[in-house]
Amino acid sequence: MTDGMDFGSKIRLLDKPANKMFRCGHCSHLAPSYNPNFGFCPFCELYTDKADDDLGRGQQALLGEIYSSLSSGKFPEAAASFDKMLSSQRSPQNLYAAAVFYTLYSDYEYSKREYTAPRGFMEDNAISTSSGLEMYSKAKLLLYQSISLCDKTPKEQRDALLYYTKFLAYTRLKKKLEASRALAELLQNDNQRFMTEYASMIHHCSMADKLAEPSIAKVIDLGIPNAFYYAANLLAEHRKFREAKELAAKLLQKVDMHYAKQLLVGIERVQARL
Ligand SMILES: [Zn+2]
């Protein structure tokens, strides 16, 4: 990060109420946006230009089920709803969103491991570990299925969303070369460039290169609050912990973003060791 550069002038955007609440049609999360035309899901990061009223009743009901299970931490129920969604529509986006959910489920199972319990804890830990591993494998399988479905889509039906989804799936699989290729394909197929800008931000942040900072600024300028998470993460990587925490906390007042919460916990942990 260039010296003196901070996100101080941009952070003021978060003082204003969001222009519109979009709903992710694949994982049910609300995507508050400062852009009146579209948003990006704070959970699975898929593009959305749908508000609740734009969704059909059946889809609204299923997303409502997923949302209430997730917000009350009922993972098995949420898993059943994701499976139901996949059996009714097995799209690359639904497969990808379900993979993001199973990754979270896996993290949750691992986090249940308890090494301070006085007795019998090894057995419980083994259960949590195998369950975490099972969820992790399921997430990976869903990502590959999403990519495979993208590749099977006839050329004339391939659109920006398809390449964007493929990019996200490869990024989650940590396959950088394939993710770069998907990003190049997205660039050629995305007339509006919104998904390209968001994907470029993820790409440059994951490479930690010098374009990370300007690409975050571009997505903030599009009115997408999720970009502040990437800004906070970048600040934390540069050990600007106070600014990073401030930014993540401010973002969380506007957007319920799991990654921002995780970042705050991570910073606290690092600071406790200092
Ligand atoms: Zn989503």
Tell me briefly what this model is.
The protein has 11 helices and 4 strands. The chain has helices spanning 57-71, 75-88, 92-111, 121-152, 160-172, 176-189, 194-207, 212-221, 227-237, 241-254, 258-273; strands at residues 20-23, 30-33, 39-40, 47-48. The chain has 274 residues and is mostly helical.
What would you note in describing this structure?
Helices cover 63% and strands 4% of the residues. It is mainly alpha-helical and 274 residues long. The strands form two sheets. Strands 1-2 form a two-stranded antiparallel ribbon. β1 (20-23) and β2 (30-33) form a beta hairpin. The protein is globular. It binds zinc ion. Residues 24, 26-27, 29, 41, 43-44, 46, 97 line the site of zinc ion (ZN).
- What would you say the CATH architecture is? Alpha Horseshoe
Low-confidence segments = none
CATH class (first level) name: Mainly Alpha
Count of β-strands = 4
Question: How do the SSEs run, as a string of H and E?
Answer: EEEEHHHHHHHHHHH
Overall number of domains: 1
**How far apart lie the N and C ends?**
22 Å
**Remind me, CATH topology?**
Serine Threonine Protein Phosphatase 5, Tetratricopeptide repeat
Rg measurement, Å: 19 Å
- Structural class call reads mainly alpha
Can you summarize the main beta sheet? 2 strands, antiparallel
Mean pLDDT, rounded to whole units? 91
Number of helical segments with 4 or more residues:
11
* Distinct bound molecules: zinc ion
Q: What is the strand arrangement across the widest sheet?
A: 1-2
Strand content: under 5%
**Global morphology:** globular
Provide the helix percentage.
Answer: 55-70%
